[in-house]
Amino acid sequence: QYGYLGGMWTAGLVNPFFDQEGKGGLVRELVDRLKAREAWGAFWNICFDYETMKLLLDELCGEAGAEVLFHTVFSRPLLEGDRVTGVVVENKSGRQAYLAEVVVDATGDGDVAARAGAEIRIGRDSDGAVQPMTMMFLLGNIQFYQEDAYDLYNMMKEAVDTHRLAYRIPFQRPFVIQLPVGRYAVVQLTHIRGRSGVDARDLSAAEQEGRRMAMDAFQVMKRYIPAFRDIDLVATAAQVGVRESRRVTGEYRLTRQDVESGAVFPDGILSARFGIDIHNPGDDTQQSYDVRPYQIPFRCLIPRGLRGLLVAGRCISGDFEAHASYRVTGDCLAMGEAAGCGAAMAAKAGIDVRDIDIASLREAIGFTG
Question: What is the pTM of this model?
């Protein structure tokens, strides 16, 4: 929907590149190419340069022979009974329909699946509340020290208390995340609660609230914290970061028990190890729980009751707690690769995605379990 690829990496200024360790396929290829261009490292040694990422993704798609349409948004699915046969999109050329043997919904919000009639869940089972959104913002001219990254909350609290500022810190575990080029860092601090990422009015209000929060935080940092007195606010993200919206009900629903126990599946298509990370919907705290390396089964990518459709990213089938683990970008990219390869195999063979040979899929994406 923007003028570049990369989703939340580029539009959302999301760093670090979480849960890329130990993965092969496109994840490893992307990291290796970023390293080769000296655009990788810095904070926890897993961050990247945004502009290099944009260009690299253009090049990778070009090498693969993919046609890319920028400034294009999904409008509605095309259906024949319970089968998704394509999508209608809108862009500068007007309204266009694209037919496909298999559609891959990588919208993050499960837009295609939801509008095709898939069963969805949103938020906690108890009350439907979702994790807050975050507007990332980019700082320049920063004299960075590693301890500043971890101590941002205490430094801001001291500034607020000392100067009696009418400012409320929106999150108890903020980070200043150094980037691998220049004197730049991105800040994970703002938290917008009580908004839906799949409601146009809520999403618009969240964007505006996020920018206000970013500016307020920047002013406190620059004016009242000596370590940040020379910083500049370079940019806020083009899109607010939505941690959670729809979760599509698939042929299998990944659970908290699965991720904490290290579940292995006969149709596993990637291994995830990022902990359960819940930014609480109702307050400024965060809950974290360890997991054992676990597999995500291909069945989680297949919406129940629909044919010709796969989903990839944070909208796959799982419960509230499991989602809080696999929603990070390293896992989402691996899901996308598995969905793309699975879709191609099904289309080539003229079969449903449920009937592809999982062993062949695992071999194609280089996943050995």
Answer: 0.95
